[in-house]
Design goal:
The complex is a heterotrimer of chains A (about 375), B (about 350) and C (about 500).
Chain A lengths: L12 H35 L7 H19 L2 H25 L4 H20 L24 H5 L4 H19 L1 H11 L1 H6 L4 H27 L11 H11 L4 H24 L3 H19 L6 H23 L7 H5 L1 H14 L2 H7 L13
Helix pairs in contact in A: 1-6, 1-9, 1-10, 1-11, 2-3, 2-4, 2-9, 2-10, 3-4, 3-9, 6-7, 6-11, 10-11, 10-15, 11-15, 12-13
Chain B lengths: L1 E5 L5 H25 L4 H9 L1 H4 L1 H27 L6 H18 L8 H27 L3 H21 L39 H19 L1 H11 L1 H7 L3 H28 L10 H11 L4 H25 L3 H18 L1 H4 E5 L7
Chain C lengths: L4 E10 L2 E11 L4 E5 L6 H8 L7 E6 L2 E2 L5 H6 L2 E4 L11 H8 L6 H14 L15 H13 L5 E5 L7 H16 L3 E6 L2 H7 L2 E6 L2 E6 L6 H9 L16 E10 L9 E9 L3 E5 L6 H9 L9 E3 L2 E2 L5 H7 L1 E4 L14 H9 L6 E2 L2 E2 L1 H14 L16 H13 L5 E5 L7 H16 L3 E6 L2 H7 L2 E6 L2 E2 L3 E2 L5 H8 L6
Helix pairs in contact in C: 3-5, 11-12, 12-13, 13-14
The chains are: A mainly alpha (about 375), B mainly alpha (about 350), C alpha/beta (about 500).
Keywords (chain A): Cell membrane, Membrane, Sugar transport, Transmembrane, Transmembrane helix, Transport
Protein name (chain A): Simple sugar transport system permease protein
Subcellular location (chain A): Cell membrane
Chain lengths: ~375, ~350, ~500
Amino acid sequence: MMEVIGLNADVTIQQSLFYILTTLLPIMVIAATPLVLASTGELIVEKSGVLNLGVEGMMVMGAVIGFITAVETGTPVAGFILAAVAGGLLALIFGFLTQVLLSNQVATGLALTLFGLGLAALMGQTYTGIRPPQTARIDIPFVSDAPVLGQMLFSYDWIVYFALALVGAVWWFLNRTRAGLVLRAVGENHDAAHALGYRVIAIRLAAIAFGGACAGMGGAYLSLVRVPQWSEGMTAGIGWIALAIVVFASWKPGRVIIGAWLFGGVTILQLNIQAANLNVLGIAAIVLAVVTIGMIALNLRSMTAKNWIRVAFLGALALLSWAMALTWPAFRLDSAYLSMTPYLMTIVVLVAISGDRTRAALNAPASLGRVFHASS
Amino acid sequence: MIRLEPRLTPSRAMVWGTPALAVLATMIAGGILFAMLGKNPMEAIWTIFVDPILDPYSRDELFVKAAPLVLIAIGLSYGFRAGVWNIGAEGQFIVGAIAGSAVGLAFYGTEAIWLLPLMALAGMVAGTLWAMIPAFLKVRFNANEILVSLMLVYVADQLLRAMVAGPLRNPAGFNFPESRLFHDSAVLPLLQGFPGLTEYTRVHVGVLIALLLVPLAWLLLRKHLLGFNIQVMGSAPRAARFSGVKPAMIIYVCLGLSGAMAGLAGLFEVAGPAGQLVPALPQGYGFTAIIVAFLGRLNPLGILAAGLVMALTYIGGENAQLDLGLPRAAISVFQGMLLFFLLGLDILVRYRVRFGKRGAAQ
Amino acid sequence: MNTLLDISGLRKAYPGVVANDDVAFDIAPGEVHALLGENGAGKSTLVKMIYGLVQPDEGQMHLHGRPYAPTSPKDARAAGVSMVFQHFSLFEALSVRENIALGLDEAIAPRVLADRIRSVSKDYGLPLDPDRLIGDLSVGERQRVEIVRCLLQDPRLLIMDEPTSVLTPQEVNILFDTLRLLSKRGVAILYISHKLDEIRVLCDRATILRGGKVVATCIPRDETPRSLAEMMIGSTLADPPLRRAVPGRTLLKLTGLSLPTHDPFGVSLQGIDLTLHAGEVTGIAGVAGNGQDELVEVLSGEQLVEPGMIRLDNTPVGGLSPNRRRSLGLLTAPEERLGHAAAPDMSLTDNTMLTGRVRQRLSTQGFLKWNVASNFARAVIKQFDVRTPGVDTPARALSGGNLQKFVIGREVMQKPRVLVVNQPTWGVDAAAAASIRQSLRDLAAAGASVLVISQDLDELMEMSDQFAVIAGGKLSPTRPAGSISIEEIGRMMGGGDAA
């Protein structure tokens, strides 16, 4: 899977830092890329006022189609393109049902996920356990070979850069173009947009198809680069996390990258801790201590009694964890608990972002999830 | 030109006609799919939909499969009516099974009549508490219950792995990740000798309880204030608040109720057909139940029928897998299509489809 | 006389109703032409056809003498026809500039557009800041955005749909100045209204619609309000009987009622004091969006406040749930019929259960007595002359007037001690409005206290015994009806001096 430096290995601090910057960081970026793609697509969909919960289904379809195409043709590029097409087509089923037949968006999104997971499993049956052709890395002479920095920044395949460029393009589209303004208007108030003569359903269908294509590419990245192989249900909830990232990003493209990297980081760290056999209690103690000091530093001027109680509680927890870590140096948590962390973190992030109702209400598209039917 | 014209009153015929139409459409589309996979479509459809009904052993299995689906779907249907989207029933199912098993294993060897009820209680409480997490986070922090409840499925799945590898592992099981086999007092009695069932039936008491809960659920929905409030909440949230319904209460009740039902279903599964806690216990009932709930029109009686139809696709699908070599995943596709057709045809209930030149609807 | 727009033989039918039948009239350049008619007379359908939102089944339109058949608002705008809607087509979370850009058919660079907005709004005396969010603007300012949007396209015909229903009297005067200026510059205006005084002041000619047909064309200055009204309604009007209420004892008392809002575009209630007496109708006037909805939610119990802020018969009720308040006799009928006062997709029996359960004892031990509920629904339908096929019909299938009669009737027949109604006759035909007002007056005469919140000043003047104005979440002191002039009310509605 990946080379890992365990605690017991005899390494210097330079070696560790080098390992983190040149090996761990690139893996995090790679882990985040499917999320960047899928979330950016879903962001456009939601900005147009549609909630498509079928991201997981579209991703897994992209994963299987991309994989099959790449294996059969030997060219990963063809895989990514067909994965995008497949994701877009699947999304259009959702679009047809919700926009033309006015079905409930939540239920239809769920149906899309169930259907996609089944269809992908069916199509990919004979492709498990194969390695796909490798996706080309972009090699810039000298720069990519530069020590540390070169490997940190310029050692990726073209999809990583494409995903980042896509985020930039989406930002530009939404904030600087008339078409983007129209899309936001449709998501804000579809009745008014219709009254002004904009074709709400056509615009939404286009957004839905774009979202599907992005999710499909994200899925293909999973099966062609990140893992890389095909297995049934390999998305393992990443599509749902992509939905959470859109909320985390408050529907702003730039923040999608931050959210995706955060989740990519947690996923990789968690795997690293599992593999390295690190003492989880020690890590918990350090994290708690940092949070405690951060709270004091940020609220130094206005420390209320309530805040002091919180700080004291966190500090005590940190001390306790540290004491336990010292008592049982070989303590090791079942890897299953560590595997929970990306999902638990999604929940924590959702809670933190949604808590501020006023802000959430200002940023969320006002027509999100509402059924539109033009009557007279 | 085809256009849609809103009906002033929903069509009653279509309310129950569309699920039947959807099943029919799925059979046709499924037949095409099976033909593409190189199977004889008629034979496949026959194997899935008719054979299980004709064969007495499969008929029994139908009830065993339908029971958890019906239980979970009834619980979910309340929430779906109120616009509270619990899609993490699978997670509540798992923690229900874990908690029930823990109780059963804690009293390992104890022969007592109170053990099973205690296990059922533990399963329901665990399922309820698990569902209370998204409910609380929704009420207190406005966090989306769809995403939270779904994330908790993955957490519950890992929890199950940790449990069978750790505290609940069979001490004499060579470190294999599964629990002991439950002793007799912790296993649901079978309904052997029940009229209409075979000698080797696997139909257990849980099936009977699921069946008894159907009319109770219907009563709650149609005749009780709580059911009425849930319906108003889903139909017109602002009118519900005006009439005195507390949204937070509805969220807690709906999620709690569906969590309890899913937890109970989990316990029935582990103390029934499984007989021990294994990592492969969750088979996606929590997700399939979503289809069942919609297919049954969120009505307990409809859900009973829908649960049987869906169980049919499971049993028939297994048979088709064995007899015709139909891939297991084809059945998931089949079930997904069913939900698509159902949601698409739903429009016939509230709209009239007109052919002809453009007019009223623009 | 040269004509700008000429319409003849226009017909439009919807399933079960003919909205327009053989409609013909014409408009000259620079003319202010009124389109007058009751709700449901077919005015909206007619202008939607002119603006290209709906296509006619039969008939022709000519613009500048050439055939004119717009298939979309874009066509209409390209031909020089613009429209300001009664319910604005605005996007709250977008800026003024973005909103205007959306309404223009050509793309203009943001900076150029902002400059043009400033210059046009200055030219017509309609000050606007292009960078502000719509959500932060008052209703009057929002209308300005719509008008400026139209003016930027240099229209030849401007359609205005009930433009003054949301304005204070002062804002109405500003609007009229703008319209006269436009007319002087040769822009024709099609002015839709049912406010007779306005039409007599502003319009050169009037076309009167009834039941989808043109029943008369006249010069409004030569008519009296009464003759116009009779043409519109098609029968002679009877004056409402005058009555004098002797205020009884205090039933409901609001003291320092305050409620901060969490909605970024909502209104906070601030220090409201109000005393309601038995046997009395109290009117609260105000421009939409000044705290009326919030006040009704606080009184109904949907929003809780400190108990002592609301006292019913000296009992603090501010912290009680809607149903506890109902059992004590405080009932409400909110403005929004579909979705707030009634659940649109549920039957009339269900909707009776919605608010009647406590006072009419429609449940025991949580189990619902559906037959008693449908009997009560039937009684409401009979007493209030609600036209419906039966009690199983969903609320949305009823016409606006019939549903409003049902909603008001449902509360009145529960014999409230205090009844709060918001916009009781909004969007309701004249006959239904009259019967609703009568039932509210009867309720007060029987000893209850009625609080009517409305944007219709005429209605409030006609019904109220005492009178107050709400502006920016603050309520003025009450004044006896008849002791206050329209100008004074207008100033108070603008928030000038609430004291």
